[in-house]
């Protein structure tokens, strides 16, 4: 039987620790001050968000996820690059777990923003829209009351699976981007 004093955030944090660490480690290999690595970072986020924005669009039980694909596209264009074609992948998992992962990335963005700001390359500095977008932090604040609630026991596994699959989507997106030759 589940611990009924645990919040949704507690469940998700504990239940996805390994997946979170794997994705953080993969993205941490990128030097955001380097144009090629920053472009890979943006392309991986674009690939994952193209799936997640479509899945979360109109999810009435959740705050509206800010649309950020156009910011990434504008940043890549400013760098003389472009986003890859969407994979066509569909997300068929619990959206609360997915929203937790995306909203929680606002916390990591603060650290990433500092690394990005150290970029000596003008090309990287031109790509400022996505990394400086404050709407994700606002989304996190909107999600916090939901994450502070208790988890319906019958939904625990599905919510966890949704979060784990979201982390996996980000990992797959980065792996695909990194496996392509740089032109």
TrEMBL record:
The organism's superkingdom is given as Bacteria
Under Gene3D superfamilies, the record lists: Heme oxygenase-like
Q: What is this protein called?
A: Biliverdin-producing heme oxygenase
Source organism of the structure: Parvularcula mediterranea
